[in-house]
């Protein structure tokens, strides 16, 4: 396989060489590049497995429509860690009993997008219950804009931290009268992503459309 920094020639090469075995593109690039990378891969009949976050809801919708029309599988996975999937499942269960929750996500200072795709997905999963979270009991005033973090559509605050020495970490903190319940996942080595990546590479060839989230293929 040739080594190149030009995506289109490589996609053409793989599309011509793959014969009966579908090609797979694994993308861990940059939010500015990932949308076009996915579209190009699907156009060549190559199935993307994407770990890059930062795609907007509109871009995700456009890519889902493009993949479905092409009958080509595509997996977009904000976090390939099995532990994070388990944290999200625990958070969804806990949210049935708590009405107040906030998310803190912590990443290395070379991460380009904020909040993280994993934090956004976690808020979306909690929001699927149809609950209203964090009903205000006082009128808040931010003395510094953004002090209370970003506000997701689900009414959940997401706080982003970027520091050298971090890899990828997330806390989901629930509060109620007299108690705090905290769920946390820490990545100490990126090797934890590889089982999920390998699973996604195997599964994407069985798909005919875009699927979002590792939990959908476990």
From TrEMBL:
<keyword id="KW-0963">Cytoplasm</keyword>
<keyword id="KW-0457">Lysine biosynthesis</keyword>
<dbReference type="InterPro" id="IPR036291">
    <property type="entry name" value="NAD(P)-bd_dom_sf"/>
</dbReference>
<keyword id="KW-0028">Amino-acid biosynthesis</keyword>
<dbReference type="Pfam" id="PF05173">
    <property type="entry name" value="DapB_C"/>
</dbReference>
<dbReference type="GO" id="GO:0019877">
    <property type="term" value="P:diaminopimelate biosynthetic process"/>
</dbReference>
<feature type="domain" description="Dihydrodipicolinate reductase C-terminal">
    <location>
        <begin position="83"/>
        <end position="218"/>
    </location>
</feature>
<dbReference type="InterPro" id="IPR000846">
    <property type="entry name" value="DapB_N"/>
</dbReference>
<keyword id="KW-0520">NAD</keyword>
<keyword id="KW-0560">Oxidoreductase</keyword>
<dbReference type="GO" id="GO:0005829">
    <property type="term" value="C:cytosol"/>
</dbReference>
<dbReference type="InterPro" id="IPR022664">
    <property type="entry name" value="DapB_N_CS"/>
</dbReference>
<protein>
    <recommendedName>
        <fullName>4-hydroxy-tetrahydrodipicolinate reductase</fullName>
        <ecNumber>1.17.1.8</ecNumber>
    </recommendedName>
</protein>
<keyword id="KW-0521">NADP</keyword>
<keyword id="KW-0220">Diaminopimelate biosynthesis</keyword>
<feature type="domain" description="Dihydrodipicolinate reductase N-terminal">
    <location>
        <begin position="22"/>
        <end position="80"/>
    </location>
</feature>
<comment type="pathway">
    <text>Amino-acid biosynthesis; L-lysine biosynthesis via DAP pathway; (S)-tetrahydrodipicolinate from L-aspartate: step 4/4.</text>
</comment>
<dbReference type="InterPro" id="IPR023940">
    <property type="entry name" value="DHDPR_bac"/>
</dbReference>
<dbReference type="GO" id="GO:0008839">
    <property type="term" value="F:4-hydroxy-tetrahydrodipicolinate reductase"/>
</dbReference>
<dbReference type="GO" id="GO:0009089">
    <property type="term" value="P:lysine biosynthetic process via diaminopimelate"/>
</dbReference>
<comment type="similarity">
    <text>Belongs to the DapB family.</text>
</comment>
<dbReference type="Pfam" id="PF01113">
    <property type="entry name" value="DapB_N"/>
</dbReference>
<dbReference type="InterPro" id="IPR022663">
    <property type="entry name" value="DapB_C"/>
</dbReference>
């Amino acid at each position: 396989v040739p080594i190149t920094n030009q995506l289109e020639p490589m996609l053409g090469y793989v599309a011509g060489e793959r014969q009966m075995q579908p090609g797979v593109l694994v993308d861990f690039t940059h939010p500015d590049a990932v949308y076009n990378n996915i579209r190009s891969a699907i156009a060549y009949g190559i199935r993307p497995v994407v770990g890059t976050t930062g795609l907007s809801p509109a871009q995700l919708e456009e890519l889902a429509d493009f993949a479905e029309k092409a009958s080509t599988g595509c997996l977009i996975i904000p976090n390939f860690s099995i532990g994070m999937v388990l944290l999200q499942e625990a958070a969804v269960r806990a949210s049935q009993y708590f009405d107040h929750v906030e998310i803190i996500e912590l990443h290395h200072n070379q991460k380009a997008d904020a909040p993280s795709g994993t934090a956004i997905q976690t808020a979306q999963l909690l929001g699927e219950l149809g609950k209203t979270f964090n009903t205000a009991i006082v009128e808040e005033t931010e003395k510094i804009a953004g002090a209370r973090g970003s506000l997701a559509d689900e009414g959940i605050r997401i706080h982003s931290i970027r520091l050298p020495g971090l890899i990828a970490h997330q806390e989901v903190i629930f509060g109620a009268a007299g108690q705090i319940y905290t769920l946390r996942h820490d990545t100490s080595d990126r090797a934890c992503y590889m089982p999920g990546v390998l699973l996604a590479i195997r599964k994407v060839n069985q798909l005919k459309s875009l699927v979002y989230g590792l939990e959908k293929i476990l």
